[in-house]
Specification:
The structure is a homodimer. Chain A is of the alpha/beta class. In chain A, 28% of the residues lie in helices and 24% in strands. Chain A contains ten helices and 15 strands. In chain A, helix 3 runs antiparallel to helix 4, helix 4 runs parallel beside helix 5 and helix 6 runs parallel beside helix 8. The radius of gyration of chain A is 21 Å and the shape is globular. Chain A starts with 6 loop residues before the first helix and ends in a 5-residue tail after the last strand. The relative contact order of chain A is 0.17. Chains A and B meet through helix 1, helix 2, strand 7, helix 6 and helix 8 of A and helix 1, helix 2, strand 7, helix 6 and helix 8 of B. Chains A, B: Its EC number is 3.5.1.6. Chains A, B: It comes from Amphimedon queenslandica (Sponge). Chains A, B: Belongs to the carbon-nitrogen hydrolase superfamily. BUP family. Chains A, B: Pfam families: CN_hydrolase.
């Protein structure tokens, strides 16, 4: 059965049964303050048409005007894309085809004035972790400092004056050659600004990535770029509010969440978790997900009692941006490649923090103590029982 | 302009423009696994009709069958209701009228086999904190151990064999007579099991409750009842993921979130935050909100540059239950009183925890350290800057 195009297509179609006020109330409750579409250069729109990828662009409300600080307007983008070649093609062909696709997409983004772009999780490869096979898949791994994918990103970053967040499978030669799931942050100057690991590794269904790499050891680094302070919470880390909080504590203004997740497992959670993080931490979150179905040569099981099979379901795309004001953009589609561009005003962050005071009222001290207690071997939960007196 | 009845009314009306599969996909993405309606006794339905309150009941999917443990099926309920008398009526009249309304509602819930019921935040009073006036409002305060509201709840709890969560403005005679925003947990035996304070106090717009009471000092207690381990996260605490986590760490299976919040401020966040907490902590959350507009005798300002006025907008109800599986029930309506009943299987919690492993992969140690560092006066966020070499 064909996949549904997107939640937004359904909502738009169904809104025809509502009067204008009803449709606007539905939208307000589901999406918060409006994020109007923004116009894009004709050349970019044409390229998206020719290249068969969605190109959508929205803007968040600008912040209130401040006397002592100019607005800080930034255009961010997230990308979702299918793999290009079958997983049976030679590794180099698979990777080159993905590079070419991302070059095309990034060029189009540059025409739209994008300042920061984030590709999907482990973008230069199929998401082969479901197979648990190491060979030939680990051949996709490369250095996060000077591997060929990073070099390509450096060239694009310098050419387009764009910060690039590139999520790859890292082979860390300086630490015994182990693998990590790593996002590399490349400055708009073309320099590698640094890297950050996936902090929480899933063991759920086909997402048994713990056979490939361990939990990250880079903490919750935040990267000061020319366009604001950014951080990267990779995929499964979005289920962990503490992980989101970590980036907030270190001063992130925008947190990217490059992901790879399938419909049956997580789709109803997808609109909730990243958006909740944006609200709770009063920053912007931009999350993107793979799209399409990836089929592998050998069969594997999914730890769900079902027979072995060769794919693990449909990556549902639906990339979106959520803001500190509780609002969010519509999502990209569920079935094909796309770029979501979002214009944001970073000053909105401090203004929302001054309004809602979530940071001021956070009582971090009591939680520092609670967590320190909770990890002790003799920790006893604080449970009240009915007494018999 | 009349308020919209509910998001669900709009979605239902709009679904008429979709084919069956589209409508079901829209529902799946927005609400997760189906929560079918359950049939209620005719007497209860008639009482709701006569009493003019909504009566809605759903059930979450039962958990997988286990050989060594029977299912633990529980019916929980949350209530939303308008104040009955105008705020200018004598205090005792206002309170008695609310008692009568809650007696009627609780009796109806008992006919539906409800095991645990939670009333809305500070239910025996109007939400007068917006006025910042102390007199006469603080006359609503009473003891959380043996005040008249608690005695009423004890009688009902014993009569109906029901656990009652009763949120009140507490006058704490044992600690200098200060006020607290407190939830009292009453066992189905009729005994007061204990109390728990509101941990995070808002200072946002009209919700300047910090002039009445301080942050709670009861931590994150969990109460072992005959129907499962419950906790109460009062209102603004739902914006704080750490607060939700605290109840999870102490073993809560159901967390109630009695609230009082208005549309312009928080409505698009309402479906996100409590549901995210249910997902992240793999427990059930039941959240309820006041409904209607409360008008006060003297005008007050809202710290938003606008002229003084006598009400602070519309409490939008929309109470709902969210589960560890990412699903949620539809919400109650936005405009009138209601009881939302939900049948849940507590075994689903451990089964989802064993599937998703959020607790196992939480890495609490690194966050204990991060928070301990973050509260130090000389804490420096971990920010990476581009070097000039």
């Amino acid at each position: 059965m064909a996949e549904v195009e997107s939640l937004e297509t359904l909502l738009e179609k169904s809104a025809s049964a509502l009067d204008e006020r009803e449709a606007s109330e539905m939208k307000r409750i589901l999406y918060g303050a409006p994020t109007p579409k923004i116009e894009l250069p004709r050349e970019a729109v044409e390229k998206a048409g020719a290249g068969n990828f969605e190109l959508a662009a929205y803007k968040f409300p600008v912040s209130g005007e401040e006397e002592s600080r100019p607005r800080r307007i930034v255009r961010i983008a997230v990308v979702q894309n299918e793999i290009v070649k079958p997983t049976t093609a030679p590794i180099s062909e698979q990777k080159t085809a993905l590079w070419d696709r991302i070059k095309e997409i990034t060029h189009t983004a540059s025409l739209c004035g994008v300042n920061i772009i984030c590709y999907q999780e482990a973008w230069p490869q199929p998401f082969f972790f479901c197979t648990r096979e190491k060979y030939p898949w680990t051949e996709f791994a490369e250095s996060a400092e000077d591997g060929p994918t990073i070099k390509l990103c450096q060239e694009m970053a310098a050419r387009y004056n764009m910060v690039i967040v590139s999520s790859i499978l890292e082979r860390d030669a300086n630490h015994g050659g182990v693998l990590f799931n790593t996002a590399v942050i490349i400055s708009n100057s073309g320099k590698v600004l640094g890297k950050t690991h996936k902090n929480h590794i899933p063991r759920v269904g086909d997402f048994n990535e713990s056979t490939y790499y361990m939990e990250g050891n880079t903490g919750h680094k935040v990267f000061q770029t020319a366009y604001g302070r950014i951080a990267v919470n990779i995929c499964y880390g979005r289920h962990h509010p503490l992980n989101w909080l970590g980036y907030g504590i270190n001063g992130a203004e925008i947190v990217f969440n490059p992901s790879a997740t399938v419909g049956a497992l997580s789709e109803p959670m997808w609109p909730i978790e990243a958006r909740n993080a944006a609200i709770a931490n009063s920053y912007f979150v931009a999350c993107n997900n793979r799209v399409g179905t990836e089929t592998f040569p050998n069969e594997f099981t999914s730890a769900d009692g079902k027979p072995a099979h060769k794919d693990f379901g449909h990556f549902y795309g639906s990339s979106y941006v959520a803001g500190p004001n509780g609002g969010r953009t519509p999502g990209l589609n569920r079935v094909r490649d796309g770029i979501l561009i979002c214009e944001i005003d970073l000053n909105l962050i401090q203004q929302i923090r001054d309004k809602w005071c979530f940071q001021m009222t956070q009582r971090t001290e009591i939680y520092a103590k609670l967590l320190a207690d909770a990890v002790k071997p003799d920790f006893k939960p604080d449970i009240v029982y009915e007494t018999t007196d």
